[in-house]
User: Which sequence fits this backbone?
């Protein structure tokens, strides 16, 4: 391959990807401004979101006798009535992003917490990770179920893991230049492929997670291994749109982070159904 051809087929930083990638994102809402929402996590901890105004939130974690509070910026979108996607970056000496799906009709929530790897973790070769049976990515992701404004009980409903996306191949148009497709392989992995844009021709297979939020509305999240990245989107197949965020270091090295909104127009290309074994 010539140098010119090789230059086209290269992975880009999260900061480079963010340019123009939010073109089809939906507007933010201030519907939660000046409200207070307390999330009672299934593990017994509590997360309180005190929305000071349309831009700032007081974020409080209570874990046993330990209480930590920080004021930070946040964004909120609402893909459907009474369903909110709240996104914020919280830092306690390391880099952490929190994304929450809040369903005020069912009074439940799902909290995703992503932590980017430090310099030492990013330096571990993938072969060594495989030999030591470590995750291939240094990105850490925690998923917690919660009840809204009332203690979590055995009867509290949850956003359940789903297999309804598996087998589908869906195209997502993020901007005039950026088009990707997702191939949902199985319960743990999917393949992304850049059809047009800065990463045209590139593809990879990464760890992913699927949750059903409502009829034809799915939460899809993934963590990438080559460029440490966490992606989080709601896919609404009723209107063929997606809404969410991508999070990672702005450059390839550890440093400033980029946490930018994404949105797309989607089209289902096909669905693979494997023959049943006799």
Assistant:
């Amino acid at each position: 391959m010539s140098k010119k051809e090789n230059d086209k087929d290269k992975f880009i930083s999260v900061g480079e990807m963010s340019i123009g990638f939010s073109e089809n994102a939906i507007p933010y809402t201030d519907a939660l401004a000046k409200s207070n929402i307390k999330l009672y996590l299934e593990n017994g901890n509590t997360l309180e979101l005190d929305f000071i105004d349309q831009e700032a939130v007081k974020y409080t974690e209570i874990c046993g006798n330990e209480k930590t509070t920080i004021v930070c910026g946040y964004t909120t979108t609402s893909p459907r009535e009474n369903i909110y996607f709240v996104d914020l970056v919280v830092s306690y000496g390391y880099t952490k992003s929190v994304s929450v799906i809040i369903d005020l009709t069912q009074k439940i929530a799902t909290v995703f917490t992503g932590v980017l790897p430090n310099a030492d973790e990013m330096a571990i070769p993938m072969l060594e990770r495989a030999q030591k049976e470590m995750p291939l990515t240094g990105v850490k992701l925690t998923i917690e179920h919660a009840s809204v404004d009332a203690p979590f009980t055995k009867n509290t409903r949850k956003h359940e893991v789903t297999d309804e996306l598996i087998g589908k191949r869906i195209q997502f148009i993020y901007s005039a230049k950026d088009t990707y497709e997702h191939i949902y392989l199985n319960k743990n992995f999917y393949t992304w492929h850049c059809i047009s844009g800065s990463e045209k021709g590139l593809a990879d297979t990464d760890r992913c997670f699927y949750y059903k939020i409502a009829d034809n509305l799915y939460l899809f999240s993934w963590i990438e291994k080559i460029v440490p990245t966490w992606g989080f989107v709601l896919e609404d197949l009723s209107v063929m749109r997606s809404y969410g965020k991508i999070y990672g270091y702005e450059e390839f090295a550890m440093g400033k982070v980029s946490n930018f909104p994404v949105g797309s127009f989607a089209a289902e290309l096909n669905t693979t159904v494997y023959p049943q074994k006799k």
In short: The longest helix spans residues 3-8. The mean pLDDT is 92. The chain has one domain: 3-271.
